[in-house]
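Obj: model holo form, ligand = dihydroflavine-adenine dinucleotide.
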Amino acid sequence: MLLRDFFIQLSENQLLNSAAKKYGLKLGAQSVVAGTNIEETIASIKELNAHNISCTVDNLGEFVSSKEEATAAKEKILTVIEAIHENGVAAHISLKPSQLGLDIDVDFCYDNLYEIVEKAASYDIFVNFDMEDYGRLQTSFDMVEELSKTFNNVGTVIQSYFYRAKDDIEKFKDYRLRIVKGAYKEPVEVAYQDKLDIDLNFIELIEYHLLHGKFTSIATHDHNIIAHVKRFVADHNIPLDKFEFQMLYGFRTDMQKELAKEGYNFCVYVPFGEDWYGYFMRRLAERPQNLNLVTKQVFTK
Ligand code: FDA
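Output (holo structure tokens):
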């Protein structure tokens, strides 16, 4: 737990974040980040598509504090949407509201999101709102709801560690939802701390949305949860087009291909860009074994 807290604190360090941006993909981050630019990313998507794996593309970056940065992020995402359309690849968009101005001005953020969702809708491309920490949760949900009054290509994420997740999943039943365990450090007042509690809630939420929801993205690298879901969908005759498995780029790649080969819809979360630092530190926090990636890089140089 101490190591997890350490990496989560590192992920929030602005100074290290800027330094990382300046010096490019380092510390083994290249094995879990698809590239620093759109061309490299489209090439990675094509490779995954060749294995029958679709992608959700994330322009790395979060907790942006200036309008200039937020506008630049929006422009980048609009370019990605254009590139997805032009290249005809099987991919959609994942985004973080805090990258598009959530912490600066909610109306400004909403306008940026509106522009992105509108452009994506014109090409029939889905946009998923990643969920960040608890402090940003309600405003993000509100924006998803507001946008879905006009567009039907919007979905979001339910984080199983939150006590409120059950209420949220009922409310968002008619949405395409990604269900995850939850990646941020949250206090006991709002979130389960124990792995077993989180896993049990995760399973309950997945089962609920598979039975009652629109479309479920089960986002996990946990083979036990995946095995449970496979049994559950078979026992309940849930059609394959009602759900997909998702994993992060570069994680358990053999299992990714295997599940796709077995006929399950599979989608890989493809992060790209220069702002890899916070994302990479959160991955180390979740699984300190990923430190192997770092040590390998340091010692093989
Ligand atoms: P967890 O880390 O609990 O691992 C369970 C077990 O699985 C491990 O004990 C190990 O046995 C096995 N395992 C896990 N990783 C392995 C590996 N690399 N190799 C071998 N075995 C492994 N979070 C959030 O708060 N907001 C969000 O929007 C998102 N979005 C998102 C999208 C996608 C596609 C994914 C996969 C995840 C997210 N997350 C997220 C992150 C999520 O909340 C969670 O922190 C991580 O997925 C880690 O939890 P897991 O369910 O993967 O298993």
